[in-house]
Amino acid sequence: MFDFDATLPFMALQFLLLAALLNVIFYKPLTKVLDDRDNYIRTNTLEARERLAKAERLAQEYEQQLAEARRQSQATIEAAQTEAKEITAQKIAEAQKEAQAQREQAAVEIEQQKQEAMRSLEQRVDALSRQILEKLLGPSLV
């Protein structure tokens, strides 16, 4: 059934040469390309992870800086509002003092005018009283 003549070793030698030739021409470059591709993917994946981690750190830092800036601006706004309230209260107090001083000045002036009016009235009453007495009693008796 099996014939073991010179063709069997020749066929085996052809198979080994074909395998060696395919290994050198096809399989080694193919495995090199696959290894290079795997290394490229691996390095790109690591770089992408590092960049993502860096981006997340930067985003977190920016968020912290933004929160700090918001706190500072809120504190500045509150300080400005407090200062504005104090200035407003001070201006109101000054205006009230000025109004009170004007009222007091007006009261003093009114009182002076009242006193002058009273003196003037007293003088007129005295003059009219004399005139009445002179008419009634005569100028010699008054």
TrEMBL record:
Role of this protein: F(1)F(0) ATP synthase produces ATP from ADP in the presence of a proton or sodium gradient. F-type ATPases consist of two structural domains, F(1) containing the extramembraneous catalytic core and F(0) containing the membrane proton channel, linked together by a central stalk and a peripheral stalk. During catalysis, ATP synthesis in the catalytic domain of F(1) is coupled via a rotary mechanism of the central stalk subunits to proton translocation. Component of the F(0) channel, it forms part of the peripheral stalk, linking F(1) to F(0). The b'-subunit is a diverged and duplicated form of b found in plants and photosynthetic bacteria.
Cellular component annotations (GO), alphabetically ordered: endomembrane system; plasma membrane-derived thylakoid membrane; proton-transporting ATP synthase complex
The entry's keywords: ATP synthesis, CF(0), Coiled coil, Hydrogen ion transport, Ion transport, Membrane, Thylakoid, Transmembrane, Transmembrane helix, Transport
Residue stretches in coiled coil: 45-131
Sequence similarity: Belongs to the ATPase B chain family.
Native source organism of the sequence: Atlanticothrix silvestris CENA357
InterPro entries xref list: ATP_synth_b (IPR034679), ATP_synth_B-like_membr_sf (IPR028987), ATP_synth_b/b'su_bac/chlpt (IPR002146), ATP_synthase_B_chain (IPR050059)
Recorded GO MF terms: proton-transporting ATP synthase activity, rotational mechanism; proton-transporting ATPase activity, rotational mechanism
Protein name in the entry: ATP synthase subunit b'
Subcellular location field: Cellular thylakoid membrane; Endomembrane system
Stretches that traverse the bilayer: 6-27
Binding partners and assembly: F-type ATPases have 2 components, F(1) - the catalytic core - and F(0) - the membrane proton channel. F(1) has five subunits: alpha(3), beta(3), gamma(1), delta(1), epsilon(1). F(0) has four main subunits: a(1), b(1), b'(1) and c(10-14). The alpha and beta chains form an alternating ring which encloses part of the gamma chain. F(1) is attached to F(0) by a central stalk formed by the gamma and epsilon chains, while a peripheral stalk is formed by the delta, b and b' chains.
Record Pfam families: ATP-synt_B
Membrane topology: Single-pass membrane protein
